[in-house]
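User: Some background: our group keeps a shared notebook of sequences we're curious about, and every so often someone picks one and asks for a predicted structure to add to the entry. Today it's my turn. The entry only has the sequence so far, pasted here. Could you supply the structure so I can complete it?
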Amino acid sequence: MENRATGIDYIRSVLSVEELEQETGFTFFSGLPAEVATEVKRQKSLGKWN
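Assistant: Of course. Here's the predicted structure to add to the notebook entry:
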């Protein structure tokens, strides 16, 4: 894949970990307690990226 600008706004491409798990079949944060993992996986806050 060529590394070039696509014109696609990255904000529209953001996924939560929960959504990524559904798309890929992978499981992330398996070492966390279930209630903590659920809360973390549902977050999708761009404000925390900086």
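Suggested note for the entry: The chain has a mean pLDDT of 89. The first helix runs from residue 17 to 24.
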